[in-house]
Write a structure and sequence with these properties.
Number of helices: 11
Shape: globular
Keywords: Cell outer membrane, Membrane, TonB box, Transmembrane, Transmembrane beta strand, Transport
Protein name: TonB-dependent receptor
Subcellular location: Cell outer membrane
Radius of gyration: 27 Å
Oligomer: single chain
Family: Belongs to the TonB-dependent receptor family.
Helix content: under 10%
Pfam family, one: TonB_dep_Rec_b-barrel
């Protein structure tokens, strides 16, 4: 079910393919005159042509907009690896979210296995084994704002505040273009591992409805999704397309027995419960035959809940007020109420051969994080009150981006090929706010499980970003494409960056092509990475993440953050040895310097002092705890790494005559990251990373991921069968059992999450021309990750390792889908 290269996605959940075109097909033909209505459609298509179902050969004719500044570039001629996923492929997975659907379709894309706390309630993606912050998300070619909810817990996603792609209605999506290539020179910060460009529907007619109902093999995790969209004309010169989703998922429960009680009351290992409503309105209108206004608005609200570790009833023996409320103990639940919106307005057109586009995009994400089913023992002791719910944190992230882009093809005497010249400038404002917790969450030792943010760690922060770029593409000879890109960016807080990219593609014959790219890129530290801080308290442990510029961090050797920088090299070939068989192979290397992750890893009295300098309220008896269980760290430029990998995609069409057709597909990603340099603490001279942190950088993502199978289409039936092999991950686990290494930050157990196979099956039947029903399942034989050794589970409950990005913890998922098309 993977989409492996640059061609039109099929109607079923198969793989899109690269096709090799004859160089003569690349010549630009003169534009013909068009009626106003036709011109309107052409202008809309220039920004993002909708993907429509076609036959296997016609797929390569899709127009792509990602990774190129040329107007009307065809997928078959793409100069860099590009996956195209249609909305029909997304729906065929049966998943209720775009993130989970893409994870089943793309070998190079991974998602967190489970996650902790508030971080588990934001849906992020990773490309090529790098942090989600190294993947740029665009919507119709425009930078999407990021979430305000940072993933703060230890793991490969730690520090990420990437765009939450599931805050965009899935019903609004026409297709997704995934550029597997470094593209900072084209798009700026974050495009180190690649670019995910979400192309929205722009049809001016029709109505589509979809219902997905699913449940896991354990009988929990019920999911319900309703997806609606439709379009209408604005006179004869415009369109409006409205989309809306309602998605709900219940908790799943995968914890083992709690060591303290022998019961299954500790639900720490579980899928969060969430309910999400989202809407999108997309519109365009031709003011003249050559000028079009366009606009987009999206809004989403999410309520989510995530379990914390169970607290024993004996912990309330001295607090009769709370004991009466929780006679059997309690499990604090972290909650998220999130409001996310984005508004875009722009005007684009043609003037004497110049294509120009002026746009402004404002996006904002606000997260109100709270606790329910919890306590504040200090309040109860001092006043007798027993509050059970708390408003603990508030985060706001806003982004205002203004772009001016232009391009034109030139013909020069003496040069036989046209030269496409593109350029542009942008200004972006970024703001990040941290709000204080409620008085009840701050009083005394604070609310249990997650103390409120104190005033010393709250604040409003911002920066300005100005950028300019140039892009030149042409043919050097028959069949030999060249693309040069350069970009300059200035950040008011971290300085300047200069980035360049050189890409070549050579069509040796109409069935064989070579391509390669060399570029450099960067990821500017997010404002959240610079200023976020929080304290998480478990029954017998405390972990603080303190701001990089805070008093506690500076006292222990922290320094200001600087951008991550990368050097990317990629090369590959595309072949079509026989008709309908398409093969692409690409190798890549990404050298990253100054990678940002928490470092320092101080513990015991040193950590307590650092957190007290930052105003954290700690439990009054913390001095009696195992001092190794009290830790703190901060974000820093901790290491340099080298990521090397291989992508292979294969598609083949078998025509069975009266018995239909089979679209075969296979795709593989091999990926390995190694540590090439580790930074040291300037005060102590010691390394900033321990073995566990190094594993998060190098081995927490799958070593490989393979997807293969096919889709049989016959009359009214479509049957899809695919296998996914999830490669091994390796982590360094903390010891929790009593012994010499309990809670050690220097001695760990190497844990290998062995490779796993899963089977996905779906059967669709077209009841009428408008109604289609599907029954299917993902991981139908209910494979689970490898179990964690008993002595390395905190309190015994988390039997699967949560800080990795391999197979999920839920087991099998079975669904029923109904589609209606008008």
């Amino acid at each position: 079910m993977s989409c492996g290269a640059e061609a039109l996605a099929q109607t079923t959940a198969g793989t899109a393919t690269d096709s090799v075109s004859h160089p003569a097909a690349n010549k630009t033909q003169p534009a013909r005159s068009a009626k106003p209505a036709a011109k309107s459609k052409a202008l809309r298509t220039r920004q993002s042509a909708p993907v429509t179902a076609g036959d296997a050969d016609g797929g390569s004719e899709a127009i792509v907009v990602t990774g190129t500044r040329e107007i009307g570039k065809k997928a078959r001629d793409a100069i860099a690896p590009l996956d195209i996923i249609s909305h029909k492929q997304i729906a065929a997975t049966g998943q209720g979210t775009l993130r989970d659907a893409l994870a089943l379709l793309l070998p190079s894309l991974t998602t967190p296995t489970a996650g902790f706390d508030a971080g588990a309630m934001t849906d992020t993606i990773s490309l090529r084994g790098l942090n989600p912050n190294e993947t740029l998300v665009l919507v119709d070619g425009k930078r999407r704002h990021n979430t305000a909810n940072i993933y703060s817990n230890p793991g490969p996603q730690q520090g990420s505040t990437a765009s939450d792609i599931d805050m965009i209605p899935m019903s609004a999506i026409d297709h997704v273009e995934v550029l597997r290539d470094g593209a900072s020179a084209q798009y700026g910060s974050d495009a180190v591992a690649g670019v995910v460009n979400i192309i929205l529907k722009k049809q001016a007619r029709g109505f589509h409805a979809q219902n997905i109902t699913g449940i896991t093999s354990e009988g929990d995790g019920f999911q319900q999704g309703v997806y609606l969209d439709g379009g209408a004309s604005l006179g004869s010169r415009g369109f409006v397309h409205v989309s809306g989703d309602f998605v709900h998922q219940d908790h799943t429960y995968r914890s083992a027995a709690d060591n303290r009680t022998g019961t299954y009351q500790n639900n720490i290992l579980s899928q969060p419960e969430q309910t999400r409503e989202s809407v999108a309105v997309n519109a365009g209108y031709d003011l003249t035959d050559n000028i079009q206004l366009y606009a987009l608005g999206t809004y989403a609200h999410r309520h989510a809940e995530s379990y914390q570790n169970y607290r024993l009833a004996s912990s309330l023996n001295a607090y009769p007020g709370y004991q009466a409320i929780y006679p059997w103990g309690y499990s604090p639940v972290e909650t998220l109420n999130e409001n996310d919106f984005e508004l875009k307005a722009g005007v684009k057109g043609d003037f004497q051969g110049w294509h120009w586009d002026v746009s402004s995009v404002y996006g904002r994400d606000y997260d109100d994080i709270g606790l329910i089913n919890s306590v504040n023992l200090s309040i109860n002791k001092a006043t007798g009150r027993t509050p059970t719910s708390f408003d603990v944190q508030g985060f706001n992230n806003q982004q205002w981006t203004n772009d001016f882009d232009f391009s034109r093809k030139f013909e020069f005497s003496g040069w036989p090929h046209s030269v496409n010249f593109a350029g542009g400038a942008s200004y972006r404002y970024e703001g990040y706010s941290v709000g204080t917790g409620s008085p009840d969450s701050l009083y005394g030792n604070g609310s249990d499980a997650l103390a409120g943010t104190n005033p010393g760690n709250a604040g409003n922060y911002s920066r300005d970003v100005a950028a300019g770029y140039l892009d030149i593409s042409t043919y050097l000879a028959k069949g030999l494409q060249l693309d040069l890109a350069g970009r300059y960016e200035h950040y008011t807080d971290v300085g300047n960056t200069q980035n360049g990219k050189v890409s070549l593609r050579y069509d040796i014959t109409r069935r064989i092509a070579l391509r390669g790219t060399i570029s450099n890129g960067f990821h500017a530290p997010t404002l959240a990475q610079k200023y976020y801080s929080a304290l998480n308290i478990s029954p017998t442990a405390a972990r603080g993440l303190i701001g990089a510029g805070s008093p506690g961090a500076l006292a222990n050797g922290s320094s200001g953050l600087k951008p991550e920088r990368s050097t990317n090299a990629e090369g590959g070939f595309i072949v079509e040895p026989i008709r309908n068989l398409h093969v692409t192979t690409d190798i890549y290397q990404i050298n990253m310097r100054d990678r940002i992750m928490p470092g320092g890893n101080i513990s015991g009295a040193t950590a307590i002092k650092a957190m007290q300098l930052n105003g954290f309220a700690l439990p009054s008896d913390i001095g009696t705890w195992n001092q190794s269980a009290i830790t703190a760290n901060w974000f820093g430029n901790v290491a340099s790494t080298r990521t090397q990998g291989l992508d292979i995609t294969v598609t083949y069409l078998t025509k069975l005559g009266a018995f239909g057709r089979i679209d075969w597909d296979a795709a593989i990603n091999l990926n390995r990251t190694r540590l090439s340099h580790q930074a040291t603490n300037p005060l102590t001279g010691g390394p900033l990373l321990n073995a566990a942190s190094i594993a998060y950088l190098t081995t927490a993502y799958p070593r490989s991921k393979i997807i293969f199978g096919g889709n049989w289409t016959h009359a009214k039936w479509i049957i899809g069968l695919h296998e996914i092999r999830w490669g091994q991950t390796t982590n360094q686990l903390t010891y929790y059992a009593p012994g010499p290494y309990q809670f050690s930050t220097t001695h760990f157990l190497e844990y290998q999450n062995k490779p796993k196979w899963t089977t996905n099956l779906d059967v669709s039947y077209r009841i009428t021309p408008r109604w289609t029903a599907t029954i299917g399942g993902n991981n139908i034989f209910s494979a689970y990750p490898s179990r964690v050794p008993d002595g390395n589970r905190y309190l015994g409950a988390p039997q699967y390792y949560m800080s990795t990005s391999q197979l999920g913890i839920n087991g099998g998922y079975y669904y029923f889908r109904v589609n209606y098309d008008l």
